[in-house]
Amino acid sequence: MKAHIAAVTDPILKITCLDKTYPGRGAAPPVKALDNVDLEIRKGEIFALLGPNGAGKTTLIGAVCGLVRPTGGTIEAFGMDLKHEWRKIRARIGLVPQEMAVDIFETVHHAVTYSRGLFGRPADGKRIEEVLRALSLWDKRDSQLRMLSGGMKRRVLIAKALAHDPDLLFLDEPTAGVDVELRRDMWKQIDVLRELGVTIILTTHYIEEAEEMADRVGVIDKGRILLVDDKASIMTRLGRTEASFALNAPMTVIPASIAHEGLALSDDGMALTFRGGDGAGGGKEAVAEVAQRLAREGIGYSAIDVRESSLEDIFVKLVEDRPEIAA
After folding, report:
1. 240-308 has which CATH code?
2. Which part of the chain is CATH 3.40.50.300?
3. Where on the tree of life does the source sit, at the highest rank (predicted)?
4. CA-CA to 31 of 20 to 30 Å: which in 122, 123, 288, 314?
5. pLDDT of 81
6. Around Cβ 268, how many Cβ atoms within 10 Å?
7. Over residues 273-285, mean pLDDT
8. CATH 3.30.70 domain locations along the chain
9. Is the CATH code 3.40.50.300 the one for domain 13-235?
10. Do residues 13 and 76 touch, judged by C-beta distance below 8 A?
């Protein structure tokens, strides 16, 4: 699956200065779950929201879906203010939550059909069948939910969210606890939805999924948005090259003749490590220059291990070393 860049139009979702503070329990101080969040989502894109546990991802989704009342700020969707037009907005939003709050004695077909009716959509057996078949649930349509595996129950949650044909779909950790085969089937369905123009916002712990699928990525931590950008720009701006030279003989200090910014010597003196550059190729040029200097000085090495930053590397650094990244 390849991500595409959505056309630049008016945002389908606009969040401005959004705050949410939960009162503390007992003597505990209040908890600020969202802190002055600004975010715009483009129509037709897949947007991945990344953050550690407790970062505010689920609270943000809950605020847009009308499940959490913000302390301050505004939310506009489809050109309407959520505070005044929440019924119209909610009817056009689908949500796949983390928690499986379902009636375990319901059948799959009834659960999905009922969910469509909740949003005022007319009965449509053909559409329900399409959704169930797309998620490999048609053969389980008469099974009670209590008889399904955890992965199949997760599929039912997605089917329920798709039953009323939403324009904006939230996926809160949709593949958590799902095996690789089920995950692949889910993303096939999501790819079809994207081609139909559905806008998708997902949170995930599988950062490689976000790297592969999303058009843009946002990082949230402690209720604040740290970064929002398309993947190519993130990799160029924050990506780094790391190279390790395995030396043939130990070295006590780095000679001035091969010194280079970002070059360091290992504690045992048997490896030189370079970290630097950016995602635009500058790091690779620096590695080549270090290799040339070693050759000129007759310093032998048996191997070079070169790797580029992944989105996960950048995410971890953003969360763990925020002041440095901000600088």
Report:
1. 3.30.70
2. 13-235
3. Bacteria
4. 314
5. 95
6. 9
7. 73
8. 240-308
9. yes
10. yes
Q: Residue 134, Cα to own-chain centre: how many angstroms?
A: 23
| Tokens describing residue 225 | 């948005």
**What contacts 24+ positions apart, CB below 8 Å, involve 62-68?**
63/18, 63/20, 63/34, 64/13, 64/15, 64/93, 64/170, 65/90, 65/93, 65/95, 65/170, 66/90, 68/20
CB neighbours of residue 225 within 10 Å: 22
Task: Give the residue among 187, 191, 185 at the shortest CA–CA distance from 204.
Answer: 187
How many C-alpha atoms does 111 have within 13 Å on its Cβ side? 29
Write out the E strands in the chain. Answer: 13-22, 31-41, 46-50, 72-77, 80-81, 93-96, 168-172, 199-203, 216-221, 224-230, 241-247, 263-265, 271-276, 301-308
Residue whose entry in the numeric block shows the structure tokens 């992965």: 151
Pairing of strands 31-41, 13-22: antiparallel
Task: Supply the pLDDT for residue 40.
Answer: 96
C-alpha span between 312 and 316 (Å, rounded): 6
The C-alpha atoms of residue 7 and residue 258 are separated, in whole angstroms, by 48
Token reading at 119: 């949003």
Residues 105, 145: contact at Cβ < 8 Å? Answer: yes
Alpha carbon distance 93, 30 (integer Å): 30
Place of tokens 């953003």: 318
Place of tokens 């797309």: 134
pTM of the model: 0.75
Residue 20, pLDDT score: 96
